[in-house]
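Our preliminary data section would be incomplete without showing what the modeling component actually yields. Below, a chain of 301 amino acids is followed by its predicted structure, encoded as tokens that our downstream tools consume directly.
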Amino acid sequence: MINTKVNLAGIELNNPVMTASGTFGSGMEYSEFVDLNRLGAVVTKGVANVPWPGNPTPRVAEVYGGMLNAIGLQNPGVEVFARRDIPFLKQYDTKIMVNVCGRTLEDYEEVVERLAEEPVDLLEINISCPNVKEGGIAFGQDPRAVEKVTRGVKAHARQPVIMKLSPNVADISLMAKAAEAGGADGISLINTLTGMKIDIARRTFALANKTGGMSGPAIKPIAVRMVYEAARAVKIPVIGMGGIVTPEDALEFLMAGATAVSVGTANFFNPYATVEIIEGIEDFMRDNHVGNITEIIGCVK
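Predicted structure:
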């Protein structure tokens, strides 16, 4: 017998494999391909206090080794989410992690307060959002802002709070420590790296926003390194993500210190990716006589 259960900030997941925010909706579109009961958790698309229209198109561009996106966190707002998406997800034996976005600390607090009485298990706070009160710099690029937002959200949250960190910083361990100092129950990383693509035929930017978030297999070595550094810097659990396509990819993150992993861009070209990764981890454990998945979490020192 093998045991794939993990404890994430006091919440027990049946296995460590989750979806990455913005790549899986709330599971509705994927439920015909994926048995959502098999997933450790479904991480929803970003939810704001009011509907966000997102950025102008084109908003997605394929690049070597991945993709760029500048969706702009388009979402219908927390009221529609609570009415439509939560009841859908509650049909399944999986945990629900709601990704929360905002442009001010008050935005985050408003969503977290609204979700306090809802039957969701965890909150993932996207601090890669631009802080409109500070000239547009992302909350996650300033350790003082990371700690402040974390502390503010924790004051209003009933569920465990996971802070989603930006990789667009000089020292990821500094950001991880700031989240921990603010009272975070866990951290997740990495969010997308800032990138750009030029359409040479049109002699203009491939994305209307000029820049976008780079995701996909090309960023995985950077993500594994940052997860390793963050996991060694803090005592709270780490969720690893960034270019996970295969079971081997996921196992790298777990061995680097991640308690759980999120699968993102892979869902776009292989809707079965999450379950294939879960099954691959199980096969690895059986083949290598690993009885409990905790034996391999953080085994690389």
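The longest strand covers residues 95-100. DSSP finds eight helices and 16 strands in the chain. Preliminary results of this kind motivate Aim 1 of the renewal.
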